[in-house]
Protein 1
Amino acid sequence: MASHFFRTAFYATAAKKSINVPFAAGRTAATLAVGLSFGAQNNRTNAVTYDNMYTDRFYSGCSASAGKGLLQSPLAGYRNLQLPISRNYSSLQIQRVRHSAMAPAKNRRNLSSKDITKNMTLYTSQKADIEVDPKTLEFKKPTGNPLVLMMAWLMAKQKHLKKYAQIYTEMGFDVMVVHITPWQLLWPAKGTQVVAAETLKFLENNKSYAPIVMHGFSVGAYQLGEIMLQMSRDMDRYGSILDRFVCQIWDSAADITEVPVGVPKSIFPRNERMQVALRNYTLYHMKTFHNQATIHYMRSSQMFHSTLLKAPALFFVSDNDPIGPPSSNHAVRENWERANIKVTFKCWQKSQHAAHYIKHRDEYLEMLFQHLEACGILEAAGMLKRAKL
């Protein structure tokens, strides 16, 4: 059934795009390229990703017998250790739970979500329904909260993204999650660039969202590059949007050189043979469709390295991450520091791609809160006001 779908789906795509390749290569490409649409918007919640193998255990609970991988003990026992602690910062004294998303229900704020587009989901603590103009993406009644623009990793599940969003909504932020599919990644002109335009439209028409925090994962670095490329073509129009960003966080940022590694692991996390096959197709795709795909990756990468976003940055990486390796992230760091951008860099010896928060939760949150405070964003989110109550 699956193989029949794979062949049918890609043969139709190949015919539509008039791809002329030798029979053997064409059949191989035809069988593999299907993965590009596997887990698209309507079915992405059913897809299992490379990172989700570990996050499922963390967020859904795991038994003692299943305690292999990132967690070596049952989650129930781990939750018993989650007691409120007091964090003392220079500018505020506030009682904070180590991870608000894991706090008891009585300590949580109400969290609601709304799909703004097929690729954009808003998380907010506001109880009222949010009305959005479908043409301009403008909110008819602003929430009055600062914003986190969160660029998701490839084929991320919403239930996992929600946990990251809760970190911020508990502090008074709204979180706009931007996610793309493998098909959109491989065909930028009709995929990621359309999503970038929608993201810009939202930011432009919702000026009340200020300040803004950028929090990106993995392929989100490429997506931000596409957004900045569109900004660069009309700085008079979009320059004010850049001024609203006050800090940025990058978790396992992936560059163009990691596309053939990251895409197969995201689509076939447990099947090494299919990973190898899809990796070969991805390389074939990048070589064959240079003008339709690869050149856009290169331009986005160059823009990300030179960056229009000059806000202080925090990087999370690990030595054993093949998709977002320290080497490529260090290259970005060096370029940004030459542009007088303050960069904080955290590299663990062992961790998991786009899942450092799961493996090193306390340290991850500690550095995140310190970064937000150093950028002055906590005060903007109303943390000081709530601390005095």
Note: Residues 1-107, 384-389 have pLDDT under 50 and may be disordered.
Protein 2
Amino acid sequence: MTSQVKESQSSDQKTRRPSRIIVAGLCIGIVVAGLLWRKTAWINFCQWQAERNLQSRDAEQALSWISQAYQADTQNPETLLILARAYRRAHEVEPAIKTLKQLFKVAGPSEELHREQWLVEAQVGDVSNLEKHLADMLIDPKGNAQDICETFVNSCVLNYRFHDAMRIIEVWQADFPNDPLPHYYLGRILEHQGDWEKAAREFSTALEVSPGHIPSAYNLARVNLSHNQVDAALDNYRLCTKYQKEHAAALVGIARCLRMKQDSQAARATLKTAQQVPESQRLKDFRAVGDPAYVARNAILLELGQLELTSGNYKAAVAYLEDAIEQNPKDRKARLALADAYRGSGELEKAEQQIQIVQKTQQAIKRLDECFDLLQKDLENADLRAEIGQIFLEHISENQGVVWLKNALYYDPRHQRARQALEEYYAKQRSSSHN
């Protein structure tokens, strides 16, 4: 009897052991599934937030959200695509290209990858692939119609293809009447063409559509200053700081207006505030309102030098302006101001040296204006585009010069002058990096 009981207990234990293992396995499975679901849900949420911020043109917030999704899973194709797009929208082209290469390794070729690749190319001025596929992309924009329009228009402006830009702006404006950017870009084009009055109207219209659109307020202020409307310019620069308190580009504009109103003390205080903005943020602020990096590099130093020059403090002006030229050797405004400062401090020989450099630059710019006028009559002229590129490269901006030279090669892949200029430029860059 006892042996039968023992056998029965032993049999029950054997039966219970597998059932406990099964229950434990199920529990672990539920926990793992829960963790995986939680991770997937978090990634989806971060992707959604990033997409939402991209739609509202807040690339920095989009990068913040999508970076968290990337940390959770570095191989998620959707995350990589949004990350590349966020980098591009934040003007960080190299990380965008790197992310697209990673996406290709993870998921292979796809229509979404190709679209983003064409947009990245256009971001740096090569609009050829985007232009080939533009009609199809606008027919089925996949929720990114405004982004596609903006990238194409901006690339056309970079390449001085204003007619093509205005053609897309017309469609963009009709489909998105509450978007300030079509008016903003049209204002920029009209400003390039010297039609200041119409440019001002477009910037004003953009502000009516979106009162907090900082680029439109900033560029309207610049137009105001070109007509010596200092009070109006000051109001528009201050409108920028209403929506972004320490906007570096706007602060420099405010200081310029205050200097012109002979309020040196307030101008100095404003420039001091601008100097406290981190350099990376300063570059972003200038870029966001359409000013190139070479302007951002020395804008504060230049305005400080102009302020001291106006106040008759020639030695202080020389110090600031020499630093400004060191930051941007191609800045002829800084060189003219430095020549005046040298004269004021009695250094006439140095002043003459600066004047000679400025005169040479002005001759080149006169030729540049002639090339632009000729280009309007023959937009596919590679010779003109190569000449424009060389003038930019030597006298104004190396980055813009490279864009124009590459653009000449787009119209004529064998263009000798453009190829040689680029080869010499890149050889010089390699030599500088080795030294």
Note: Residues 380-435 form one domain.
Protein 3
Amino acid sequence: MIVTVGCGLLAWCAVAFGAPRLGRRLPPGNATALLVSAAASVATCSLLVPGMIAFLWLARLPTVIDIGPWSAAALRAGTPVPLVGALACAAWVVWRTGRVAAVALRRLRAVRAVRAENAAGPAEADRLLVLDVERPVAFSTPPPDGRIVVSTGLWRRLSQPERQVIIAHETAHLRRGHTWWLLAVDLCVAANPLLSPLAPAVAQSVERWADEEAARQVGDRRLVARTVARAALLTRSAGPVGAVGAGSGAVPARVAALLAPAPRPRPLLVAALAALSLAALLAAAGVQRQTDAIFDAAQLRRPAGAAAPAERHGAGRQPRTRVVARPGPAARPGPAHSPARPGPAARPSRPSSTV
């Protein structure tokens, strides 16, 4: 089990540090889906594997062992992880699960606040909401019922073609549900901080995804690149938490990608990213199979309730056994072992009389 857990850790590191490099060379839509899938697989395994290790020791507690038909002494002998490691795994699972719940609650509250704040007010075509605010800002609120929010301070500084680019970019965010992709990777990072490099990689890929969608709709990649650069210089922020905007991400890299030809599919890189996710899942499956083997070996072969307390809870005193000796073959009567009958020599002789 120790070797399997070590292989799992190597797979997690490969996903955390190798997946962002591979994702930058993929089309942004494929990169987003694969990066989030890889992060989700590692985050799930990083909670399941320590949970299984911790349960190997929790199953020896009297309140737990009465539920399952296994022996505490057998579990103690078959568990390869020391008590300190099991306690650390249990603390890790509790800590990271609470962290995931806290991040989910905070992000969902922010999403609801953004939607409620921008739900009122007249909307123009394409769910566009223009705010009478001098600070330049442009973002989209999360779907469903998402809206494109642009301030008058930005709207007046853009030309009509650039406005079309902004609307196409934010419409792509709404149509593809980019807010939920970002929320998913944030939850994965909360489950395992080792996945922190994937959060900016996914944020960049969703912006690149919206850029490519806008370029296909407008038909001019240079116009989209110029608009992205201008919007980034004017806004300098992506808007409130829970929203995505045209000025987000690494803008120089986005502009350079728009000035280059459209990305082409790369099946080998897709297979490599899928293999990293599969490696993490296989390591977790190996730990689960070995854990089942330990519990199978520790199961009592007697019917439920027939095991002695010493056997179930691993006490040192063994139950007394009453030994009853059965008669062996030598004690059975038979012709060969019957007592000797007195022969003629053994019979008493009559006393002789003399005349």
Note: Confidence is low (pLDDT under 50) at residues 301-321, 334-341, 343-355.
Protein 4
Amino acid sequence: MIESLSTRARFSFQFKAMFIPARFLALSLLSLLLCGCKDSSSSPQSVSQGVPLQLGGKEIADRIARKAYSHTETILSFGHRQPESAGLDQSRAYVIAELKKHGWTSVEQKFKKMTPKGEIQFSNVIARYAPNPGQNPWGRSVTGVLAAHIDSKILPNFLGADDAASSVATIVALAEHLHKNHPTAAKQLELVFFDGEEAVGPNMAFQVDGLYGSIHYSRAVQSSVAQAISPYKKAPQFGIVLDMIGHKNLTIKIPSDTPKKLARSYDAARSKLELKNHFGKSSGSFLDDHYPMIVIADIPTIDLIGDFSANKWWHTSADNMDLISKKSLSMSIHMTLEILSNHL
């Protein structure tokens, strides 16, 4: 996460009509296509045809939340997830291994980038559903993207339980649920775990510091779509970014410039699920991983992000497992399932 809502707002509209130099379009997608894990051989259930898609209600969200809570504990046991750290490597390996158990093939999208602290090697994890041996999921287009950042900010004694281990853990738990209960929906999704969301220096600035993984991913999507080649012959139709969704005092506030169709879906969901006390709207826009997805990759994306603006725990050692609540995770999961059901 970045410094503050006011910090984000300074940059939010400045780059809406930005020009992307041609040199950025010549990105290699080779690593995306070649470094995936082998497919799982499990056989998921079929999805009923001819009925509106419903990926899960409250009881299902509660069950997924318990698994997400456990995954969060495991990720934190590896230590901090600062750039190029052992804890970050272990977290990526854990995510890839857990996804593989449930039919998801993962690739690491590696790249180097100059930062205020010198050149750093980053690596996004990208996964698609391919439960049967020999399947190549990278030849097909996907409808939606579900994403979170896997790194933690460079701060002493900072683990980032809610920022954003809980979001990573939630996506891993959702991947298992979709595999076991909704394989057709799973095939329409791409899961992304961004590296380098956090600024290396004190403050985030678009294309200067921070959002390294989401910018690199979005340029790769843009390049692939522009050439009409796999793995993105056409851009995904929507994206959902999760960030700080497990805090015991859950207050989600989506940015004011959320794409209209997703904003309507969000409004309908928080009314239907009776979650208006926990899911609101920010009065302004801000920088997070959804932003490059919108302005570079042209993927309409909603950012389900916890409001940290008045919380002393943010970017401190207090962001630990004590903050994480299964009830909050369940509410965030229920909301995510509802939005996915409306857009897949």
Note: Residues 161-181 form the longest helix (21 residues).
